[in-house]
Amino acid sequence: MATTTKANTGEIVQIIGPVLDVQFAEGHLPEIFGALRVKHQDGTPVIAEVQQHLGNNWVRAVAMSSTDGLRRGLPVEDLGAPITAPVGLGTLGRLFNVTGDPIDGKGEVKNITRRDPIHRAPPSFEDQTSSAEILETGMKVIDLICPFLKGGKAAVLGGAGVGKTVVIQELIRNIGIEHSGYSVFCGVGERSREGTQLLGEMEEAGVIEKMSMVFGQMNEPPGARLRVGLTGLTIAEYFRDDERKDVLLFIDNIFRFTQAGSEVSALLGRMPSAVGYQPTLATEMGELQERITSTKKGSITSLQAVFIPADDYTDPAPVTTFAHLDSVIRLERALFELGLFPTADPLTSTSRAIDPAIVGEEHYRTAREVQRVLQRYKDLQDIIAILGIDELSDEDKLLVARARKLQKFFGQAMHVAEKFTGLSGDYVKVSDTVASVREILDGKADDLNEQALYMIGIFGGFMDVRPDRVIVLTDAAEPAEEIDTARAQAARARAQETLSQAATLSAADEARARAELQRALVRLRVSERRRPRRT
């Protein structure tokens, strides 16, 4: 809630759903975006935000919670400031609503530095900075085709039911555990069930103590859904500017922010624009997105889920969002129907980080070659459907086989879906992804059945690494006669040294070290068997 700075009281003269018309004394009108407080008969406060001055000393405000039970004539207090959010290290591990009140049942928030207004100007141009550093996510198709920039904005786009929230939750888990740092999650107009599930999973994973969460779910008034993103962003800005940290900001779903703005605009009587959206759509989006940036003190890296209504990518709401993004992950229903998860489409997903100067020449060439192969496969699909694959040239048959292997390989088991799939999740480093994809493109997996590459994590060659076992997918990866015993012994020593520090390793690094040790031991055993026996 906001903090009272002056005594100024009016009264309710009209209530229309979540909209309150309030009359104040002459010369005492609250400012636009000022916070008002009115109490139910049981003492429960309702916070509202001033949106319009109507004349005759009336203001029109939008409530942040239900107006059920309010009536005309109730006194309304002008709090003399905008809605504020608590900031400080005390917000970590806690769950808040749009007005900054804790809603996790853990009592009052301690160690709060101050309360900052949720409406703030973006950093000035001279204070901003840019970065060309890649943020690894551990998801193969994302890291290869549309890598994230540290301090940039990325979005997961998709229609209903294609896996946006699952991808967001997996990225929260991967980045939170593998990269540490502070995170802020904003649940904007989504299901309360998903928020509760996410909270439980973050507690189980042990990353909740480095995360603040702000919820304004779909059952709440449009005012709450419109402003909850600003509340979460205000908390993230404190970590960036005061604590000088690199912060991760997750927003699920940015379309609901736009949708709430449309509802508020209609309630305020504004003339709708294209497809019924508010005429201020671009302005409202810009006010939020321009604050998500990197400064000389720290950075905010944002990942946003964007619902695409009716799978229409020309809808004004997602189109307005596109202009602010550095990386776009496009989830396709056709891939969902094929059972390929995540359903990110390598042909339509993009990132401005795919540049040799940023990701390196090998990564860049590999990503572009993948897109070339998949595009050619897409072009051939009509011919295959009509005439059959046997009518293709030998070169095209080989290309189709490799394209299908790539599609299967980009499928990945997710940690947050383990209870549904029964498959333990994989975190794959960018270098391993690039090396493995390069092997597929170079034909080293041509003898493998495409199904062998489905839902596997690859470390150091075609090897499926699980917590309890390591499965070598092909024994043709290294012919026995080419084994270098000295290199195998050195690899064994390196892996043993790494595993001696297991307490400091991530799960992925430990799995990789165990795989390298297993491979070295196998090579040494094969080498020992091939050694001529003494007579």
Describe this structure in words.
The protein is of the alpha/beta class. It has 4 domains: 9-84, Thrombin, subunit H (Beta Barrel); 92-105 and 134-351, Rossmann fold, CATH 3.40.50.300; 354-464, Bovine Mitochondrial F1-atpase, Atp Synthase Beta Chain, Chain D, domain 3 (Bovine Mitochondrial F1-ATPase, ATP Synthase Beta Chain, Chain D, domain3), CATH 1.10.1140; 478-535. 36% of the residues lie in helices and 20% in strands. The protein has helices at 140-145, 164-179, 192-205, 222-241, 254-267, 281-289, 316-322, 333-337, 356-359, 361-387, 394-410, 418-421, 430-441, 485-499, 507-530, and strands spanning 9-16, 19-23, 34-39, 45-55, 58-63, 75-82, 84-87, 95-96, 114-117, 134-135, 148-149, 153-158, 182-188, 211-216, 246-252, 299-307, 327-330, 350-351, 463-466, 469-472. The strands form 5 sheets. An 8-stranded mixed sheet has the order 8-14-13-15-16-12-17-18, sandwiched between helices. A 6-stranded antiparallel beta barrel has the order 1-2-5-4-3-6. Strand 19 and strand 20 (469-472) form a beta hairpin. It is elongated, with a radius of gyration of 27 Å.
